[in-house]
Amino acid sequence: MLDMQSSVRVEDFQFPAGSAQLSARLYLPAHTPRVAVVINSATGVPRDYYQHFATWLVAERGMACLTYDYRDFGHSLTGPLAASTATMSDWALVDMPAAYAEMQRRFPDLPLWVIGHSVGGMLGPLQPGIESIARMICVCSGLVHHSDHPWPYQALARLFWFGHAPLLVKTLGYLPGRAIGFGTDLPPGVYWEWRRWCTTPGAYLPETGHRLPIPDWGRSRAQVDLFACADDDTIPPECVWRLADLYGDSARQHLLRPKEHGLRDIGHLGAFARRNAALWPRLIAQ
After folding, report:
1. How far is CA 161 from the centre of its chain?
2. Are the C-beta atoms of residues 241 and 251 closer than 8 Å to each other?
3. Beta bridge partners of 186
4. Sign of dihedral through CA atoms 185, 186, 187, 188?
5. CA 59 from centre of chain
6. What is the pLDDT of residues 7-16, one digit of tens each?
């Protein structure tokens, strides 16, 4: 199957992640790729949101790029959400490493790059399989408490964590994201774990060694670049810099300001939007 750009081939398939089968799309150049890239999505963002960025990586940079949906979400959803036992930890500690393994299986001789958006980069230092990663790029990934958000966005966050959203999850058995303006529906376990991390000060770190593994990015030694957006109310820059501490002294920190790139806004999701393609060379520059 050919993408809208004739130089890009697209393959849809599934790959195993523990007990789950994840739905994936692989973008391939007409010639032998020089880098294998895995894109880890943000929470509630389906794989197809990254299709324009993935196509650009292939057509303009000669890379192979894998996008996929986490278990019980998007194209990987196979049953009623209320019956799902998936957690955010499952996404990060099982599904993401499975994607790395799949790309290594297909391209064993290529350097593996991981581009993590929000939660897609947040748990990198805790994951198994990071020894194979040659480069890690985190975009709007950070350790955030609800008090970190600026107002008036903080009011929306408090409503999401303490208002109607948890009541709806308890009532319906899943997060009805489409109905409340979040964008997508989520499994209950994903919502509750996400809520605990974002409403308990330091919850991410105390859980390591108990609920979560101890972070150790030193197992990888990969180059790490963390990008914060100056106008991101969801993961403000100071939360991104907090995550940098887990990646270690070698992590490079970058602040993206919309006006410096001739853009009106970037926010939490905009770095991968086609309208902001001017950012893309900056994200992968070495």
Report:
1. 20
2. no
3. 175
4. negative
5. 22
6. 899 999 999 9
Contacts of 114 (CB under 8 A, 6+ apart): 37, 38, 40, 96, 100, 121, 124, 133, 135, 136, 137
Token pair in block for residue 70: 């986490």
- Name the pTM for this structure: 0.96
Report phi then psi at 171, rounded to 5: -75, -45
Separation between Cα atoms, residue 50 and residue 186, nearest integer Å: 19
- Matching residue, tokens 């509630």: 44
- For 226-278, the pLDDT digits (tens) are 999 999 999 999 999 999 999 998 899 999 999 999 999 999 999 999 999 99
Q: For the chain, how big is the Rg over CA atoms in Å?
A: 18
Please report where in the chains the tokens 């991968």 appear, as a residue: 272
116: part of which helix (H) or strand (E)?
Answer: strand 112-117
Residue type, 106: R
